[in-house]
Structure formats: structure tokens, C-alpha cells
Design a protein that fits this description.
Blueprint: H1 4-7, E1 20-22, E2 27-29, E3 57-59, E4 62-64, E5 67-71, H2 76-86, H3 99-108, E6 113-116, H4 126-139, E7 143-145, E8 147-148, H5 156-165, E9 171-173, H6 175-178, H7 185-196, E10 201-203, H8 219-231, E11 239-241, H9 250-256, E12 263-265, H10 275-285, E13 290-291, H11 301-309, H12 315-329
Parallel strand pairs: 5-6, 6-7, 8-9, 9-10, 10-11, 11-12, 12-13
Antiparallel strand pairs: 1-2, 3-4
Helix pairs in contact: 7-8, 8-9
Bound molecules: zinc ion (ZN).
């Protein structure tokens, strides 16, 4: 079945310093020494929604459309190895992470599309990853794979050009696993190139449970990146900072990023951020700049959906977060 990537989307085509390190503990803190919050265990979430016979979820009698902007898959031959490496710490997946399993999970949870985010941890992996992404998009009707790009690679521009030719609709960057600070000049260059190709870029934001330190993805560095990109003439970059802008650094997000013209996604937050904090961030930042995401296979659609619905946002705000904002960003309805 031809994938949505082929048929529905149009494709036209050292850090800022300031990281302080406590010598003995080998722990890095962000510039503001923001206390690390949000590592509390999962809390139960009230489910107040009824599932329709079609498998879609209803709110106020209307079927909710859902795009999950943040999921991960791996090629079949490396999926088990990848999961084994990532589960050395506290993370446990809900299921496997092959494309077939992600498609199955999307169908079971009534998601229209799952956006899959590959991470290129080395420059030489990039082309292989992106060809796999394109092949997946053509084979799986519910999966939309972004491109993985390695910031600062000698052939970065050519790789972004190839990603555009392969009709990959966006770029995933993971500073924690790529070892590049968010405000490194290579990131600024990447943002400029992505802007030229009209490609959104989604960055991991904040700590990563599997690789928390050094902290490459601080919210204040994200704000610095925006400033540097604006100086290069990028006035309205399509940038998404995952995990509400900075996992476990919510205070710094509120100080540095809330209200700026960037998107946050809601991935991996069910039960991991105080409800009053996430609601305040959404309302102050604007629901029109929030995208629903899960971080599948590490969390699922149902727990994140119910967590968000329990915040008591309006139906219009929920519709924007669960579908409309992503649909506009990815040209899904064109
Ligand atoms: Zn993720």
C-alpha cells in the first residue's frame, strides 16, 4: 500500500559554553542549575473516555483524530540489539520496536499516523537510515519516518538534500546521543538548511533517562539556538523541542522557551510531570504550539492521551494538540 509519505505530503525540495561541571560527581548542570524534577514514578491516570467501535477515541461525542509525533522504530535486524542497549537503565519498552510492531500499535490505538524519529549517532549511518525511512514510508500506511541527520557532518547539506529527495518530511536530532550541544554552530547551520528545505526539525529536549549527562539539550541552549538562527535570517523556523521543551527541566523551559515561536511535544510525560506544571506550560505557550507524542515504545498512546485529557483543556485545544497542529506542520490534509 502506498504510504502517506508518498501520496499526501509535499516536499519542495562548540556550543555556547556555560556548562558547569561539578568536578567530583561528574554531573553537569544547566546554566541556571535548574533543579531536576519529574523523575517520580508513574502515577495512575484516570480514564474517562469511551472507545468507539472503529477503534478511534471520542471526546464530547466527536471522534478524535490523533497524530503521534514522537515514536521510534528500528530495522528488523537491529531492533533487538537496540532495545537491549537502551534497557540497560530504567527504561522498559511496551512492545518491540520494528516497523510492523509500530504499525500494529498505531492501528490498535486508533492513531492516524505515527511519526518515527531515527537517531543517527554517527555521520556514516545517515544515508542508510534515511533509505530505510523512505522504504518504511512506502510500505507502512500509518508510519511517517523523519530523516536522521548528524549535525556538523562534512556532507550534512548533501544528506539533507537526499532526505528531501526521499520525501522525508522532517529531521530528528538527538543532542544527547550525538554529543553536539543544541547551540553548537553546526546546529545553527542545520536549522538554516532545514529552513531552506521547508523541513521541520524535532530535537530531543532536556535530560534523557538513558543518557542524561553531559546535558547537551538544555532549554537555555535551545533559546540560544533560536537567537543564533534568527541572526542568520531564519525568522520562523519550524522547530519542535520534545518532552515539553526539556525533560525534567520544566522551570528552565518556563523561563527560557515558553512563548517563543517553537513547538513542544508531549512525549514521555504521562505521570512524569506534575499536572499543574504541564497545564500551565500549555496555556502560557499556547495549545497551537503543542504536538501530541508518546515516545513509543517507551510509553503508549492511551496513557499519554488520557493524561492530557485529564488536564481539562477545551475540546478545541485538545483537537489542536492531538491532530490539527501536526496536520498543518506536515501538510497531511493537502
Ligand atoms: Zn524519543
Amino acid at each position: 500500500m502506498p504510504g502517506p509519505a508518498a501520496s499526501r505530503r509535499r516536499q519542495e525540495k562548540s556550543g555556547g559554553g556555560g556548562l558547569r561541571m561539578a568536578k567530583k560527581q561528574k554531573v553537569c548542570y544547566s546554566k541556571e542549575n535548574t533543579p531536576v524534577e519529574g523523575f517520580a514514578g508513574l502515577q495512575p491516570v484516570t480514564v474517562a473516555q469511551a472507545r468507539s467501535p472503529s477503534g478511534k477515541w471520542e471526546q464530547g461525542g466527536k471522534t478524535m483524530r490523533i497524530v503521534d509525533i514522537h515514536t521510534h522504530i528500528y530495522p528488523d535486524q537491529v531492533a533487538q540489539k537496540a532495545i537491549a542497549a537502551l534497557t540497560k537503565g530504567p527504561l522498559r519498552p511496551l512492545t518491540g520496536c520494528t516497523a510492523a510492531e509500530a504499525q500494529q500499535a498505531a492501528e490498535a490505538s486508533g492513531v492516524i499516523y505515527s511519526v518515527c524519529l531515527p537517531v543517527a549517532t554517527r555521520a556514516k549511518q545517515v544515508e542508510h537510515i534515511n533509505r530505510f525511512s523512505a522504504e518504511t514510508n512506502s510500505r507502512y500506511s500509518k508510519l511517517i519516518c523523519f530523516a536522521g541527520i548528524f549535525p556538523g557532518a562534512a556532507d550534512m547539506e548533501a544528506q539533507i538534500d537526499l532526505a528531501a529527495q526521499l520525501k522525508l518530511p522532517g529531521i530528528k536530532i538527538h543532542p544527547q546521543f550525538q554529543g553536539v550541544f543544541l547551540d553548537d554552530p553546526a546546529m545553527v547551520r542545520l536549522v538554516c538548511l532545514a529552513d531552506a528545505y521547508h523541513m521541520p526539525v524535532i530535537f530531543h529536549g532536556g535530560l534523557d533517562i538513558a543518557k542524561p549527562y553531559p546535558l547537551y539539550s538544555s532549554p537555555w541552549r535551545a533559546a540560544h539556538l533560536l537567537q543564533m538562527a534568527a541572526k542568520q535570517g531564519v525568522s520562523k523556523p519550524r522547530l519542535i523541542f520534545a518532552h515539553m521543551g526539556g525533560y525534567a527541566l520544566w522551570g528552565e523551559v518556563e523561563k527560557e522557551l515558553v512563548g517563543k515561536d517553537v513547538y513542544f511535544d508531549t512525549s514521555f510525560l504521562a505521570g512524569r510531570i506534575p499536572k499543574d506544571v504541564i497545564k500551565r506550560i500549555i496555556l502560557n505557550h499556547g495549545a497551537e504550539r503543542i504536538l501530541f507524542g508518546t515516545d513509543f515504545p517507551w510509553q503508549g498512546v492511551e496513557e499519554n492521551r488520557d493524561f492530557l485529557l485529564s488536564l481539562g483543556l477545551s475540546q478545541q485545544q485538545n483537537q489542536a494538540i492531538f491532530y490539527d497542529n501536526a496536520a498543518a506542520l506536515l501538510h497531511l490534509d493537502e
